[in-house]
Amino acid sequence: MDSLIKLFFSILLISSHIFGEINGVESSSSNHHHHHLSGPKKLFVFGDSYAGTGNIKKAHAVSWRVPYGTTFPGKPSGRFSDGRVSTDFLARLLGIKTPFAYLWKYYVGKEQLRYGMNFAYGGTGVFNTKSTSPNMTIQINLFEQLLGDIYSQQSDLSSSLALVSVAGNDYSNYLALNRSIAALPIFIKQVVDQTELNLRRLHALGLEKIAIPSLPPLGCLPLYTSPQGCNDTFNALVNYHNSLLEQVVAKLNNETRQSTFAIIDFYNAFMAILKNKGESPGSERFETPLKPCCEGSCGNVDEKGANKYTLCDDPESAFFWDGLHPTQQGWKFIYSVLGKALSASLLKL
Q1: How far apart are CA 195 and CA 127, in angstroms?
Q2: Statement: residue 205 has pLDDT above 80
Q3: Cα–Cα distance between 50 and 165 in angstroms, integer?
Q4: Local structure of 197: helix, strand or coil
Q5: Is 96:43 a contact under the CB 8 Å cutoff?
Q6: Considering only CA atoms, which of 47, 5, 12, 3 is closest in space to residue 177?
Q7: How far apart are CA 184 and CA 141, in angstroms?
Q8: Which residues lie closer than 8 Å to 183 by C-beta, 6 or more apart?
Q9: Contact 125, 62 (CB under 8 A)
Q10: Among 90-104, 215-229, 281-295, whose mean pLDDT is lowest?
Q11: pLDDT at 283
C-alpha cells in the first residue's frame, strides 16, 4: 500500500486547485415539469468549483478571466467552465432558476433570492484549503446567519434541497503541506467524518433533503492522466473515500428512518461517459474525452499579454474544459447519464 500511496502523492501534488462535485440529470422539459411541483422549491449549495457560480472575488480567481464563460453567458461569470456548471443543471432539474451566489445577495431583490442561495467557493474543502475560500463549516455558518432574516427555518427549509460538495481540495492541500503520506487513509476518514457532522448540522437546521455527490474519478482528470490513460491508483483512493461516504449516508438515513440523504453518483457517471465517449455506447460526441478544450495555463497570459493556453475550436466537442473541470456540454452529459434515478431520489420530499 505504501508504494501506491506514494504514487498517489506524486500525482496529486501537482494540483493547487481540485474542485468538488455535484451532479444531476439533464431531464427533458416534459419530465422535469411533470415532477418539480412536488419537489424542492429552493436550492442551497455548499461546496467548491464544480458547484460555484461566482462567489470568489475577481482578483482571486482565474474563472473571472477570458476564455472562461465563452459559451455562457458569453463572458467570464466566475464559473470554472466555458458555460454552465453542475449547479445550473441541478436547478433546471428542480424546475427553478439557478440560485444567486452569496457574494451578490445585497445586489438583488429578495424576490430573486426565493430560489435559494449558493455558498460554494472554488478551491474550498471540508477543512481549510485556501485563504480566499471559506471551508464547509464557514459556508454553513453564512447560511445559518441568514435564517430568520432572508429565509424562514420552518417554511423555506422544509421545501428546500441542500447540495453538499465533498472533498477533493482537502487531499491536494494535505499533500502539498508534506503531511504524512502513510496517514493518508486516516485523513480520508477524517474528511468523511467531518462531512457527516456537516450533514447532521444542515438537517438539524431544518433542511429535509440533502444531496451529496460522490467524488468523481480524480485519476481521470486531464491534469492527472498519462498517455496510458487514467491513474488507477488515484481512483482506488477515491473509491475508498466514496465507500466511507456511502456508509455514512446509510447510517444517517437509518437514523432518520427516511431517505433524507441521497448520494449523487458522480464517479460512475463520469466513468460511463469516458468509456463510451458520450452518454451511451455508440455515441461519439467526445472523440478524445481526456483532452481538455483549454490546454495550458487556462485564463493566464504572459508579460507581453500573449495567451499561455490554447483553445479547441468547439467546446461542445470536449468533455473537459480545463485540467480539472467539465465543459458545459460535459455537465449536460453527466446529468443525462444520471437520468431518472437522480430525478426520482431528489424530487420526492
Answers
A1: 10
A2: yes
A3: 8
A4: helix
A5: yes
A6: 12
A7: 28
A8: none
A9: no
A10: 281-295
A11: 63
State the pLDDT confidence band at 10, using cuts at 50, 70 and 90: very low
Here the contacts of 62-66 (C-beta below 8 Å, separation 24 or greater) are: 62/298, 62/299, 62/300, 63/122, 63/299, 65/299, 65/300, 66/299
Distances (CA, A) of 56 to 73, 79, 121, 338: 17, 10, 6, 29
Can you tell me the mean pLDDT for 282-294?
A: 86
* 3-class DSSP assignment, residue 157: helix
CA dist 129 and 265 (Å) reads 24
Per DSSP, the three-state class of 117 is: strand
Is beta strand 294-301 parallel, antiparallel or unpaired with respect to 307-311?
antiparallel
What are the start-end ranges of the E strands in 189-249? Answer: 209-213
Rounded to whole angstroms, how far apart are CA atoms 150 and 163? Answer: 19
d(CA 339, CA 208): 22
Query: Which three three-digit cell numbers place residue 67?
Result: 476564455
What structural domains does the chain harbor? 2-62+73-265+338-346 (3.40.50)
- DSSP single-letter state for residue 97: P
d(CA 105, CA 99): 10
Strand partners for 315:
none
Q: How would you classify residue 277: left for phi > 0, otherwise alpha for psi between -120 and 50, otherwise beta?
A: left
Contact criterion met (CB below 8 Å) for 215 and 166: yes
pLDDT surpasses 80 at 252: yes
Segment 305-315 mean pLDDT: 97
**Helix 169-176 / helix 2-12 crossing angle, nearest 10 deg:** 100
Phi-psi region of 116 (alpha: psi -120 to 50; beta: other; left: phi over 0): left
Give the residue numbers marked as catalytic.
49, 322, 325
Report which residue type is found at 32: H
